Amino acid sequence: MYTIIRIATFALALIAVPVFAADYAALPGGKFASVLPADATNADVVIAPFRLRTTPVTNEEFLAFVTAHPEWRRDRTPAVFAEARFLSQWQSASALGSDAQPTQPVTQVSWFAAQAFCESESARLPTWYEWEFAAAADAARTDARKDPAWRAQILSWYSRPSTTPLPSAGGAANAYGIRDLHGLVWEWVGDFNALLVASDSRDQNDPDRLKFCGAGALNLRDRENYAVLMRVAMLSALKGADTTANLGFRCARDGAREGS
Amino acid sequence: MKRVSQTVATLVALAGLIQSVTAATAAENGGYVHGDFGPPRGDPIHAVLTDPPNVPAPTYRNYPAKVIVELEVIEKELPISEGVTYTFWTFGGTVPGKFIRVRQGDTVEFHLKNNPNNKMPHNIDLHGVTGPGGGAASSFTAPGHESQFTFKALNQGIYVYHCATAPVGMHVANGMYGLILIEPPEGFPAVEHEYYVMQGDFYTTGKYREKGLQPFDMEKAIDEKPTYVLFNGAEGSLTGEKALKAKTNENVRLFIGNGGPNLVSSFHVIGEIFDRVRQEGGTREQENVQTTLIPAGGAAMVEFHTDVPGSYVMVDHSIFRAFNKGALAILKVDGPENKAIYSGKEVDSVYLGDRANANLAAVTQATKAAAAGKLTKEDQIKAGQQLFAGTCTVCHQANGEGLANVFPPLAKSDLIAADPKRPVRILLQGLSGKVTVNGKEYTSVMPPMTQLNDDEIANIVTFVLNSWGNPGGRIDASEVAKVRAEPTPAAGAGH
Q: What are the two backbone dihedrals, phi and then psi, of residue B333, each rounded to the nearest 5 degrees?
């Protein structure tokens, strides 16, 4: 993985500016009651100020990336970094075709490929806590999670079968100016493989728990928050080279301001 | 299913030997036979899975085999009721999922596939598995992936399987359950029909039968207040053309499961008695059962013989679920009538009940007089008095005084004096909203008394008009008939 990051960084140095100037919004961070408590029981987590891409990465953005970094073309990426279905919705390794609209969020991307893309725009994947912090907002409030309507909106996306093409990125902005956190795609986070414990979610407080070394390994703080729990379950089902038809990503940067 | 009985017949000789061996063991162990019959033998067998309400053919095997089961999870929109759809998560594209049938002692190699178009990760917990999570810990599978694990089917019985991925309740509520049958080594006695029926409760944001695609409602699920309680995942899945079918003088075996997620089922077939029930799917048989309880996450095997043709309605006898939430299925039995067992309707005659008693003699007298065209006012008053005593005194009291502030008086009523025919209308149409009688306001509701016929109403009102200082007079049945023929005023209108 580090090799890849170095390659990506090296490539970035050659290109100097990303093809697309992505929008990032600043989020204050601070104390946050995550569904995965910091001490595995009840403690708030502390999140440093960060910036988050306002929209998920789109097909055209990712196409520009693989054009500039051909080692990430689907026909050149080693299988350890991306499984066979990597970008399989594209017509070819270098063209989108009719099944992949330019403004749709890119899906069928592995964690490694997503991380490399973010490196290419001097960014990284957000942590789970950063993602959850941003996604707690609705249009008016920075933490709307106690509102049943907030939860219902997320659950309604789960209720929709994924038989129709994905909408374009660029839905309504939340209180931080971030779009599409809910209701469009799943999104990779940097620490996706440290989230849930067991593949059988029911064995809470089992003596075996210590064999799982995850940040959120032990207990869910808010069991009623099924909506977020399902995202954790989804991410924890994945390996870094996996891709799915509903899984995309966005990037994050440290600090409240550019260059900080 | 014909084929089942025939093939079974040809195997009886073979099975006889095994049966005698296991029967002896069963008796010694109180019905329990340990199911490890050694390593699998022969070529691996690919299990044939069936969609509900069908059940795969028996295994007809007398040795333990390696059985390969392949099950695909598919998330899809399906009808849940007429004009209503729901995004079900399914094992194999149906709710309940595909029926799996193996033999006790088999080694089952299980492949769980998660369709690449699915949104969710899934796994499977089979209650017939001995091991942590019933397989769930080994089968957590992302979309576009496949998991494999292997177990030995140690215990015979009919077992529920279900998804156990977080949130478990939601995965189950969306239809992720089915049945796996682990046959006893000697198999089951041959029957003409085996069917697969599974109950589940469903929670939608819209009301029962509200049209369109209905999302899952988490609040209702937590409160355990289902919108639908269904057999085989949809209202009407086992009625009309899709009803289960049998002929008279056949044996029917039902594998009945309950996926839940919340409700316990009181399973009953109206007009049948279960000859044999394996309650909770266990080994012991109970006989002559009317209603059998099926826990959420449990199953039962019931058998009965069809004697009389007709439609037999299967219900959850928590009966509002059947008639108001959809838990209805039909078994249609065709064949010749058997009048010795059930006659059908033999007599339809008039039954007067306690109206034939002496205390209603005056009513009988008035009815006869009216028929003869000789009805007098006195006849009417006497008959009306007796009818009044039976119908009206509960509220208006025997003395016509009513109850202060609740039920208005009929005695010396200014309302009646103002319009002596109004009581006829009130009896036929009811009275609600404010009404002022003798200077006092009343707001009770009187329902329409349309169960009374025209003669009876005429007699009651004539009695009231001639009692307790009211103005007198007489109402004829034809006047009542006229009012009854008027269109019913809209609720809230009138009075």
A: -110, 120
